[in-house]
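Margin note from the TA: students keep mixing up input and output lines. Inputs are the sequences; the output is the structure of the whole complex. Example:
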Amino acid sequence: MTRGLDLGGQRSDAAAYRLAVADFGAFYEQTYQAAYRTALGIVRDSALAADVTQDAYVSAYRHRSRFRGDAPAQAWLHRIVVNTALAAMRRRRHVEQIPAASLSTAADASSGAIARLVVTDALDRIPPRQRAAVVLRYYHDYDYATIAQILGTTSSNVGAILTRSLDRLQAAIERGGAARGGAVSHE
Amino acid sequence: MSDHVFEPRIRRLLRETLDSEMGPHPRWAESPASLQVADLERRRSRRWPLRVLAVAAVLGTAAGGAALLGRAPEQPPVPEVAKADNGWIAYAAGSEDPRDPNGDRDIWFVGLDQEPRRVLGTDGDTVDQFCPAFSPDGRRLAYAREVRRSGASALAIADVSRDGQVNDRLAIPLADGSPPACAIWSPDGAYVAFGVPRTSPFNPTATAEGSEVWIVRVDDQDVTVLPNLLATDLEWSPDGQVLAIASGEDERRSGDALQDGRINLYQLATGEIQSFDETLGTYWLTWSPDAHSIAYAAFDTAPASAREDLLVLRVIDVYTREQRQLAGPYQAMHGIGPVWSPSGETIVYQRGCTTRVLLPCGGEGQETVLVDGRGDSGAAEVSERIVATFRTQADDTDRYMSPYRVVWSPDGKYLLVVAWGDPGVTGFKTLMVATPMNRALPSILVYEGHYDDPDALSVYDGYDRAVWVPTQTWARASE
């Protein structure tokens, strides 16, 4: 069952949301890139991410009456995007292998591009739900409580998921960086 | 909050990576989502007729159906309503291979909110106890007992207390080397029946000759032997007056199945056996709760279906002999024949996967299918629902667990799926999940164990040498 987000203590965004649903098209235009990148970070394939994003907006439109307006509309949207992306991964996993590293091309050989390849390779090595947690935390900067609401788990479990994810990402990126000539710099 | 040293670095790398990907950004007016939203609005303006059509579409879909993808949960509290009428679940654990040093098979009980515990046998007793079957009132347990060293075989019957204590009551010895006595109880608990298949070495030509069906009156242990029946499935009619037997006479087809398998009805009162020749190819069967019909899976005998492994699922009215086909042809490899729900609303069966877009089925992977058991013979299509079990692993991945067999709960509100699969990290596992028919309720993970653990549930549950469907492994809660 889908419930509205209950993010006690966070700023109410009801007015902004009401404005957004009054013109769903404007809401779409304002939030599309963030939603698409969330989907892309999870499904790791640009075409599938585009499909997931479109499906998520349809779902958001269908269920907009369930949004209570006591949380940022974008967090509510991201919950839908994450669920749609994870469902798509479950379906697609059984049909074909997800192509790795579809975010960048090997022909783009700048050090920045190589670093991105290393990151995308590393993201491939963690499960989709962990990828979702990483994207929500380190790309969108959501706090643990919001991520817990989006993923349907507890804040403490979010911490555990992130720690596990970072361990694996760190190992994969350091291995990948070394293999690609140290393109990923250490800080 | 995590203070992982890698946090600042992953934050920077992730932003660089994702920010570099603008991706396609169709304007709202041209986007697929906009088109779908417009379509939703058009439908909403015609709400009532389209709602009706939407329901009909779900009920009328034969091949696709509505899929319930039930993930095995993290052990939510068991609702009291689930425990009210549903008692112990019995299973055999251990190795069926007599050379296996891990030991023999024992019988265990588990409850919806009770940990598994061994109730019959011990490690190293070199006695196999398996094929548990609860009497309809839940107070007795029939099971097969074999002594490994001597080959001595018996049908045993034990008393079961409300708290799950098991005390042997009697044992009926069989000839040494006999197949296991995997019994099925009559509805009043007065009789048990089991097959004695002798396909080898007693019957090298593999016909029904020499094979038997035994009917045992429990009170005085009187045995009636029905000769020359090679049973692939047995089930008592709900009124207890008729034993339906799936058996042919000759021409082995594959495994234990005979080419001319059919439904045979044994009348308990008269001893008469009536064969339904129009059910040629029958392998598994199940009675409707109203005792008017039998659903059966039969090898497809249509000329266009030359493959030996294809089945069709049909229902025959035992009075009018009218038939209708519910499903097929389909392929099935493992042990769920059709089983009618206690309410009569649903028949469950297993087939090779047809919905690979949704489920990762391949090879031995199967899917559990629910079909409407109430349809009339004029219905063009039969509603269908697929129950699938996914297990979430410690690394947060979901793995599909292939069903092996199913049992209805005594109240008919849950379907217990015994499944197995490779979760990837820790090797093969077996599990039992009670899947509610009410989709608003959570599934209940009843049991989970490693496939190779000597005390783990065997998906075969002892029925590796007796092929009929174990339908009496979930007891009614006794008073």
